[in-house]
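Suppose a colleague, Dr. K., hands you the sequence of a protein chain of 289 amino acids and asks what its three-dimensional shape might be. Before reaching for any lab equipment, you can write down a predicted structure in token form. Begin with the sequence itself:
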Amino acid sequence: MRIRHLSMLSLLALSLVAAGCGDDEEPSGSGSASATPTAAAASCDKSSLELKTDGRLTVGTDKPAFPPYFEDDDPTNGKGFESAVAYAVAEQLGFAESEVKWVTVPFNSSYAPGPKDFDFDINQISITPQRAERVDFSEPYFTAPQAVIAPEGSPAQKATSLAELADKKIGVQVGTTSLEAVQASIKPTEDPQVFNDSNDVVRALDGNRVDAAVVDLPTAFYLTAAELENSKIVGQFAAPGGDEWGLLLEKGSGLTDCVDEAVKTLSDEGELKRLQDQYMGGESAPELR
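The predicted structure, expressed as tokens, is then:
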């Protein structure tokens, strides 16, 4: 899931935080399913890649870019989980850091149908069947649990189960998989209050207009530590079907197979796990059932 947050702490931006491309055509430049590893590797040679700009890998993400995914509102510095993942993928594809260009892509625009001005986008974008009809996704680079945040004095703070949250007023951001998770797992007795961005979600929590909000767990740790004084993480729960985040590419992109292979390699070699532990590990929250 994913939620965008437009407020800033010490000029650091935050946001919050919902496979496969679903396309039956063979990806451009790929061989048959029985292609040899040598042939597959040759098709992903840097000089053979289908790029938006020759010799340069263009990577998209939203602005502001916030912890723990990016640091100092600067995707180019390689700090933060998603910045580090993007550069690791770039390295797998043969690109030096100086050959990576970052562009700003609003979250809701990233998975809209049509041509893209980036080679891939990394922005806590959940892989969903609906989105996969319009864009390509790589293999997942992260699976995010959902989390419930409640401000001080909220009746939701004492909840120990999903059922105990059903009668609470819950806020979520529009267009996120958190909304789907609330409806499917918490099954609230009244419709969740849906906000355009996480600025509004945070204001609603601060103003006690909602009892709780649902975001992805890494964002919940940041929000409760830096943005919502005296709030707490009530607990975490798994999104139905798992909330898997993938690198997003233009539908039918000739680069999809190669980006997919890069993510698989990073996963197999343990690099994704290392980066996850470095930037998003170490915390825990009670599990809500």
